[in-house]
Amino acid sequence: MKFNLITLLLFLGATISFGQGRTLEPDHQVVTEHQVTIRGKSIPYNATAGTQPVWNDKGETIASLFYTYYQRSDIKNQDTRPLVISFNGGPGSASVWMHLAYTGPKILKIDDEGYPIQPYGVKDNPHSILDEADIVFVNPVNTGYSRIIDHETKRETFFGVNADIKYLAEWINTFVTRSNRWASPKFLIGESYGTTRVSGLAHELQNSQWMFINGVILVSPTELGIERDGPVEAANRLPYFAAAAWYHKVLTAEHQNKELEILLEEVEDFTINELLPAMAKGGFLPEDEKSAIADKMAAYSGLSAHTILQHNLDVPTSFFWKDLLREKGGYTVGRLDSRYKGIDKQEAGVRPDYNSELDSWLHSFTPAINYYFKNHLNYQTEVKYNMFGPVNPWDRSRDRTGEQLRLAMAQNPYMKVMVQSGYFDGATTYFEAKYTLWQLDPSGKMKDRLRFEGYHSGHMMYLRAEDLKSSNEHLKSFIKSAIPEFGTPAKY
């Protein structure tokens, strides 16, 4: 009996010890010193990997967010130094993607087109924005190492369009205060669902935290709650279809031999001025006109006119990913980046078995980020890094983030917005991003503060070496353009 009791106590002790090892410290930081060469110049910086609490109205810790803060260490006056606050998407995605492949001082080892290579690891990012701005990468609840601390708190506190924006704005206020960055020009950057997040945050920060933002960068933006159902949604797919078909060289010589941007300009014109009006007529579109439209769509998309007519001109993107190369090798193409090809169990069907690009990215990102925190930033934990965390069900109702961004711009004459999109992104297509930009300010009075940049890649356009360089340069020029000259008043 005594032996069994001792054994039980030892077992319980081991269990408790293991549990403690998997528990997040809600307020803890590790600071390390580094340097990186950017544009041929050595840049010294401090990296802070840590956690900061989320509090409820009673001041009780209910969650803790993991963040990584890069601060150039040879800057004497932070008041004029820009601060970029970075979020990824999902919802439920960690900040790993832009952190370790786009703007941060280190990027993962991949080939020039973004495909995984071994051995895994990281290398210096010669194009990082750290020479021009400090960066904090934030992981919302249940992503990265961020976790709920008080499990009595309702999940609706965190997991929804508006709940997410509300608690993150409060968290940012605390971070800016702790870091003494209230005087700094501030920028929000979000990717994919992160664009929904930062669009809402721009308004929430200004109206609930009284923190005014200089600029917002939308990387591969979502719809931001801007309506586009029916013919608009269906017609808007065609320019992306054309881009993906051009990349895979399945167009006729007439279109294949054109430069991509020239081809897309032509397809956009057809989409707006011919396809959309035709689709608006629905079943009352005369058959001869319908056939002529299908022939043009086929010429631009790489699909057959017969297939397009079978869909009444409304071809789903999921079918396009399956069908584009069905008769040309039997491959599927990726959703988030249609440069990537996949192999399905059978060539028949209406959608791919899996997302070929996402598996490729997880292949390279997951080992790199786990290695990086432990070996480069000396952040030691047994908490699992959630590339994608449990955040469902996610309340998507009352998404007014596009209108919130418009209002934030109207309230703040300093604020500018830039969109960055990859032409081969089939999830948040470049033409939908343009449409969002066009609809963001129907008055047209702020269009000189809106900017679009496109790239020969997909959802994460920075994975392609050439676009990594150009997209970071666009970020730097945008940041500079959104910081007014000394003494310039914020007024119309």
Short description:
With 492 residues, the protein is α/β, with parallel strands linked by helices.
Describe the structure in your own words.
This protein is of the alpha/beta class and 492 residues long. The chain has a domain at 11-226 and 363-481: Alpha/Beta hydrolase fold, catalytic domain (Rossmann fold, 3-Layer(aba) Sandwich), CATH 3.40.50. Helix content is 38%, strand content 17%. The protein is built from 15 helices and 14 strands. Strands 1, 2, 3, 4, 7, 8, 9, 10, 13 and 14 form a ten-stranded mixed beta sheet that branches. A two-stranded antiparallel ribbon has the order 5-6. A two-stranded antiparallel ribbon has the order 11-12. The longest helix is centred in the middle third of the chain and has 21 residues, at 260-280. The chain is globular. The N and C termini lie far apart (83 Å). The model is unreliable at 1-20 (pLDDT under 50).
